[in-house]
Amino acid sequence: MSSAKGWKKWLRVARGNPAPATLSSRYIYILPTRYGVLFAAILLGLLVGSINYALSLGFVVTFLLAGMAVISMLHTWRNLAYLVIDSRKPAPVFASEDAAFEVIAKDSRQRARFSIAAHFDDTIPTYADIAAAGESPIRLLLPTEMRGWLKAERVTLFTEFPLGLFYAWSYVALDARCMVYPKPATHHLPLPASPDQGAAGVLNSSSGDDDFAGHRAYQLGDSPKRVDWKASSREQGLLTKQFQGEAQSTLWLDWVTTPGADNELRISQLTRWVIDAHALKHTYGLRIPGSEISPNNGEAHYHRCLEALALCMPHKVDVI
Amino acid sequence: MAQIKSTHNPGNHDLYWLLASFASVLALHVAYLHNWVSLVMAGFAGWRLMVAKNGWVMPRLAILIPITLAAAIGIAVSYHGLFGRDASVALFAIMLSLKLMETHTQRDYIIVIFLGYFLAANAFLFNQSIAMGIFMAVPITLLTTTLVGVNHPNGTLDWRFKAKTAGMLLAQALPLMLIFFVLFPRLQQPLWGVPQDAYSGMTGLSDNMAPGNISKLSLSGATAFRVEFHGKPPAKKQLYWRGPVLSTYDGRTWRINSYNVSKVTEINKGFGVTRNTSFLTLEPHNKQWLLKLDMPAETAPEYLTSKYTVTLEPHNKQWLLVLDMPTEFPADALVTDELQVISKEPVRTRMRYDASSNFNYTLQAAGLSEREQRIDLQLPKNKNPKALALGESWKNQSPEDIVHTALKMYREEPFVYTLSPPPLGENAMDDFLFNTRRGFCEHYSSSFVYLMRAAGVPARVVTGYLGGEINPNDNYMIVRQSDAHAWAEVWLQDRGWVRVDPTGAVSPDRIELGVAESVNDSEALPLLSRRDYPLLRKLYLHWDAVNNGWNQWVLGYNQDRQLQLLRYLTGKNFSWQDLVIALFGLVTASLLALSYFLLRGHKVRRDAIQKIYDQFLNKLSKAGLTRYKHEGPVDFSSRAVRRLPAQAKLIAQITDAYTQLRYASKISPAAIKAFKELVNSL
Q: Which of B324, B396, B558, B632 has the most other CB atoms within 10 Å of its CB?
């Protein structure tokens, strides 16, 4: 995705891995903006006029403005220099939503910074001011298309403050990636009707919430609330308590039950089901090529299922 | 630059700043624009303000284009065309105000600000006084402040911070500006021809003399030129500053003889201009001449010549003023037969030249050529019959006697010297000599020359300045436009051209004391030429000394001055290449110095804290306690407290203060001072 164009691909990129990246002088580039070029043209006009009309004070103004422009280059450079760039782990999103990366720009030189902008290639920049020795988060949105891990692209940090005549910039490779869940199917295929369908290998004579129905061996993903800790303290190993009536809401979301032959559509469908089951507070399990998540509920389980779907590689696994 | 820009537009706050900057730029120009142009500009600014304040819609192009065309036509009519300095500045100014009406994006703002800088600097075309120079700081600072605000797209900055940033940028640019100003190579010649009207409004002697010309000049207090004498200034009555020599008379107006001017080029081609052109012989004759108008006999030789440097204000004509009679001329000047010194180009910038003059001279004593005789005896036909008859009636006398007779007439008949003479009729000379008898130097000189010619004595009118005022503050002489004067020269056998000032016959004070003493009613004179405000005069002389310094070193800073200054500073002659090398060297050095301070500024302060802490460590190591390399300040402190229980409290305080300063976001100088005192008290 990183799309360094032309000569810019030769420029250094500050790495944010493992420590936060510091934009030391090695990483800062500076060029005049188009306004800088326009300003130079106007100054040239003033200079020629001053020479021609022998205007001493014309020279004074021309040289003062030229000096100011040159000085502004130092100010622009120093506005960006020695920022420390860190990032936060972005929250997962569904494909086609925007992934929100948060760049943390931190001043390390006791200098307030103004109008520091950050953007990914081809996205609109976001601006922030940073107090002396303070830090500011800069939220960068990146559109997503595919499920799976989305690695942050090269981030461009730039500033044109104070006069807009110079453009100082730096590239930072963030050590951040965003989990992109598959895009849920839009059409509403109802949740698989029979909770028992294809439920082989799992206790299906489960029980309701109120009536204790006995133990089963602990399985990864079981809610800690249901672990019989007393039994565990009696050194009987981890046992999960089973209750009557649970069978009604236990659901297996299985790859084989999804219609169609297109893997992505099937993953989409499963994603939709996971979302629906989670919304209905069902206990559900997920079985997809390459992995199986036993029934459970709650936020952690929900995200675990979605992540499994996001990373599912059906073409690498023998699918029925 | 393929940059992705935010679509954020500047807000109302930025607009107010932009309009304030615009108003200050307009203030610079308001005196030089037609009133309607200023009003229209203010109108647009007001309109734009209303658009922002009341949420009106921005005018559409369909409205703006007709207004633009109307404004351009208006300018073309008011200024008689769209080209030329005044018209183009006015057009540019009004277009900029129109641009305000479609200014809403950041890009528009930046362009208006840049053009604002340009328009502001254009004001120097009209006025480069000290006051203008100082006032220029206002629009430049306002525009820069606006620019800073516009370049902060994420929200509005506090105006004080913006102004501070702008002021800081400009202040830091000052050293660079000075280096460039002093060292930037200056050209002697303009790059291209400048519009004719660029120099309108310059006052000075005209190349002709019609009734009223000089008395009009006499009402102007403007400085004509300033003179530094190398040595003692000559006596007042020797201060005849020779300007245009007028030989042709058409009954109303005296003009330069065009033939003679064209001959100048001939001389120039033939010989180059040398100070010893064949027609000029200078020899002291030590004779008292007519009515003491020439050299007094007792003049000591050192007072017979004078060397001086003139700084001439631009007057858009070619003549350079020198004392009667010049012997050494400015380097590039030409000299005509009549001893007018003229420059090759009209004097459009302040000009400095050296000259020297000899007060005891004979000019063309050998005789006049036939052509010169014809010119200097020429009179218009069928005019002024009475004056002509009077002159002719003297024909039988010797030329010297004719001169005496005429002067006697001026002295004894009731002639009055006045700045406000009555108007003269068709036969101006008759009217003046026999009717009104009230006049000014131009009346006396022209009627005198008329009478001489009528009596057969070759004569001509010389215009220039008489007198001047020494400024005691800086020891130079100011010659003002109000010192403008006209006198006569007559040609006498064996003596050549002799200066005769008939005004002196009527009003000797004019020659000895100046125009202010010679007129009873000072009402018409410029304030500063009068004698009745001594304190004001004194202040004025101080002010003029400052102005003279400004003119000499700031406005008149040209190639000569530049090389002179550098020779003075370094003792070396600078070439063009040396200038460029020096310029680059100094600019680089000052930028390096500035970068150091800009980029290291805060680090130095950190180091100060470290230094104080090091003193603390030194003190403890003297007490036998040394910090290990791996040991942090806090660990070291707890070890030190255990080893030196007596100092426990102080050590803890110092460590506290140190860590606080080390990790504080803002360090106040007071905190550093307190920390230092703590360490010192240990």
A: B324
